[in-house]
Amino acid sequence: MRATVQQNKLFEAWNAKKMGVGSNLTREQIAHYQLHKVRQTIKLAYGNSPFYRKLLKNFVSKEINCMEDLQQFPFTTADHIREQARQFLCVSQSDISRIVTLNSSGTTGEAKRIYFTDFDQELTIDFFQQGMSTFLERGDRVLILLPGERVGSVGDLLIKALERAGMVPILHGLVQNIPKTVEFMTQARIDSLVGIPTQVLALARYGEMTKKTIQLKSALLSTDHVPDAIIQELVRVWGCQVFEHYGMTEMGLGGGLDCETHKGYHLREADLYFEIVDQRGIPVPDGQEGEVVFTTLTRQGMPFIRYRTGDLSRFLPDPCSCGTILKRLERIIKRKDGLIFLKSDTFFTMSDLDEKIFAVDRVIDYTVTVDSLQQATQLTVSVWLLGQSNEAAERALWDALYRVPALVQARQAGQLSVSIKIIYSKDTFFPSASKRRIMELKDS
């Protein structure tokens, strides 16, 4: 893998160029630029968005002399978008070139719709181009395991970005047939791939099981939480570097990216301003965990001011050894709505299960349901394993679950029962492309 400090400094230089400053970027220059852009965004939103005109009517007269002054302004939430998406628009409907619908489990049960102009999508292409250039080289062949048939889709934007960077994008789409995709990878001389963590894991484990030789320099995992257990397995099977990307549709698909040190995300500070806030909504010091909040700085069609993401993380105060001055966000491993509390007053997360279950050989996916309506909480885990019946794997799964501290404590207190359903699949099953969540049954 040929990622270098120099390549990672290219991402910093790109941010500096967008900020209109020289190559020796400083935190003072970043703060000055972001202050100017936040003022512009508030002016744009208040002057053109019916939603923000109402939300900010008692705040817009407040002066913003430093970034801390933004703390006086109200938050934007996912429910706001679900209920009033069109009211966010700062342009006419005819200027919108792409609408992304996000089905979610929000309190209203309604979908979120995120609107983009051509300019907004160009911002994403530009970010993708710079991000991919930090670990790829011109001429590299990149397999895209994401939807890309529709204009403006994530795969389509990635294709445009890779072509501009002098790389060779190969659109495959989501994995729907593991053997066929693995066979294609053995023949297409792939240097790198971009895909969903569980789908890429399934390819690696199936390829190893069937003794298919796949040589990759790198893999970029995106669209969902990336467990360390999956990263370690890809490194073991393919011998490649594994990179992560942090983003969500509301951010314009990209918020930050991993470097070769793999110690957090370097943030896209020319386009986004990030905060970390506690449960009361008060910003916390660097190093302290809280909810990730962001404000768009360059978005035209549907800007967001202090949008609460639901992701839990912290700013890493120490400089990254790659040398960049860009702010660094710790890897996202949990969300506010992903904390599952048990009757024993302990909680666990999907990440806690991921690290134990995906470490078991041949596992390619699983789902979990928590039923809190019974006297003792019922935890049901359905696990998909490659190959035929495997008693060792079954024992390993039970051992894995009983290494999750919250589950052990609740079980010892007689407040939890656990059942595992194992489904064996030679090649007919493929992991879902949806974000993985724990399904919770409880009193409303």
From TrEMBL:
GO terms for molecular function: ligase activity. It comes from the Bacteria. Residues 104-294 form the AMP-dependent synthetase/ligase domain. The keyword Ligase applies. Transmembrane segments: none annotated. PANTHER family: CAPSULAR POLYSACCHARIDE BIOSYNTHESIS PROTEIN. This is AMP-dependent synthetase and ligase.
